[in-house]
Design brief:
Radius of gyration: 19 Å
Bound molecules: flavin mononucleotide
Order of helices and strands: EEEEEHEHHEEEEEE
Number of helices: 3
Largest sheet: 7 strands, antiparallel
Strand content: 35-45%
Helix content: under 10%
Strand order of the largest sheet: 3-2-6-9-10-5-4
Oligomer: single chain
Number of strands: 12
């Protein structure tokens, strides 16, 4: 694709109410784990994000019509589970079924253990998982952003020593929208950490 796009090469599109748009994807997929009345549930979430380093806050945006939304509204804990690309079929199944109708863990053979500090399930398959205590919930249109304080992290031992994800060991699961999945291209990785910063004031990180 050409880098420089003249205005005439672009369509101007006003968002239409009720339509969904995915050109800003791919988004990293995280699977939200919850526990309610002794029953677990898992729902994939493309709209998740870190929100603060200190304290470490993490947010998941959940549609108001999801079963998980009701559970998160009532419970005070959740987990966020990051999976390798090869789990895309499982994620598809979890994201195209509802905990209101089935026990997803049983139906799709999801193995998990309960969190040590938060009462929510941690997926065994996750290369990285966050145990969160719910702090806040803010409504944005048809979704609610549930914000959790991260109280414990489960980090795959082979990854734990490095500060960033080792993409030689893990291929993160990315979502393109409309049931399409993709992952990172290892050859495209670039490291610029030895270049000087451009700040005027001394600022190391
Ligand atoms: C890859 C993927 C990403 C998704 N991302 C979100 C999301 O960010 N927020 C959301 O509310 N639903 C998202 N969904 C849809 C829910 O996972 C889906 O509605 C699921 O059936 C909800 O399960 P529940 O009814 O048990 O809560 C996503 C689905 C898939 C497959």
């Amino acid at each position: 694709m050409d880098d420089k796009k003249p205005a005439e090469d672009r369509d101007l599109v006003e968002p239409v109410e009720g339509e969904k748009y995915f050109h800003y994807y791919p988004q990293l997929v995280a699977v939200i784990g919850v526990m309610h009345n002794g029953k677990t549930n898992f729902a994939p979430c493309a709209w998740s994000t870190g929100l603060s380093y200190n304290p470490f806050l993490f947010g998941v945006s959940v549609g108001k019509d999801r079963f998980t939304h009701g559970v998160l509204t009532e419970s005070d804990a959740f987990t966020v589970n990051f999976l390798d690309f090869h789990h895309f079929r499982l994620v598809r199944s979890l994201g195209r079924s509802s905990g209101a109708e089935i026990d997803k863990a049983k139906e799709f053979n999801v193995s998990y253990a309960m969190g040590k500090k938060a009462a929510a399930p941690v997926m065994d398959a996750a290369y990285y998982a966050l145990e969160c205590r719910k702090q806040e919930a803010h409504c944005f249109g048809d979704h609610t952003l549930f914000v959790g304080a991260v109280v414990l992290m489960h980090v795959s031992r082979s990854l734990a020593q490095a500060p960033i994800l080792n993409t030689e060991l893990v291929s993160p699961l990315l979502y393109l929208g409309v049931d399409h999945y993709i992952t990172t291209d290892k050859a495209s990785r670039a490291c610029l950490k030895d270049l000087p910063f451009h700040y005027k004031r001394d600022k190391r990180r």
